[in-house]
Amino acid sequence: MIHKIVILGPESTGKSSLCELLAQHYHTQWCPEFAREYLMTNGMDYTYDDLLTIAKGQMALEAEYESMVDGPWSMVDVQRTPSGGRWVNTKTLRSQKHAPLLFIDTDMYVMKVWCEYVFQKCHHFILDEIVHRKYDLYLLCKPALPWTDDVLREYPDEKPRQELYQIYRDIMINQQIPWVEISGDYEERLQQAITAVDKLITSV
Length: 204
Description:
Helix content is 48%, strand content 16%. By secondary structure, the chain is α/β, with parallel strands linked by helices. Strand 4 (86-89) and strand 5 form a beta hairpin.
């Protein structure tokens, strides 16, 4: 069992950087976007069907990282330790009270928003996966950081960035998994995220 934390939000809101910093802080892994490598290889002239391919690639990548994180960890001393035992990494010998963590830079909600924002429809496969896939925490990044140019980014203007943020926020409000809004500069975002993750791992 691992805790899976998803970071989502519009483009250029520090999602990947936040994932990487959180993984470093908690001595674990983070799962990057499959879409980035796919579009770098195949170009930005993508189709509706490409988004289904990207969604399935993201799921496969997430499964790969989940196996990497979960594999070395074991719960020990469940019977003898009053606190309920500790998790031990059999490769590094690191121990901790909470289950291992995996930070994920996108999920099927992102694919749904992408499909509907660009093509005004969404693959049923993606909608079905949203229902069945389980996560422990969402971190929603506000578009308050300066825009950073990237050949793979599509919406540098403020209006679509705010529109997309409101779409994500509405999704978060209408689903059941705990979520936290992340804002401020890079350091403030990191501290807010750490506070949210610490609350998660101390409450289970």
